[in-house]
Design a protein that fits this description.
Largest sheet: 4 strands, antiparallel
Order of helices and strands: EEEEEEE
Oligomer: single chain
CATH superfamily: RNA polymerase II/Efflux pump adaptor protein, barrel-sandwich hybrid domain
Strand content: over 45%
Number of strands: 7
Number of domains: 1
CATH architecture: Beta Barrel
Structural class: mainly beta
Amino acid sequence: MDIEIRAPQFEQTDDPPLVVQWLADVGGTIGNNEDVLEIETCKAVFAIESPAAGTILKQLVHKGDAVGPGQLVGILTAAA
């Protein structure tokens, strides 16, 4: 089953948050609540956690991309 990885809801500012880096590659396995992506806001860098254990299927944003609140950023396949 495919599971969406979404950016959290955050306050809209003039400077949108930007992708810093993925912490897991496509095809890489991750655990539940494991950090998978770093986002930088005007105030801090924070990590987006995996919603489930599984394998990264797609990375829909890349380094330097702006990210909106709740935006779909990746897809993983749940561990069996």
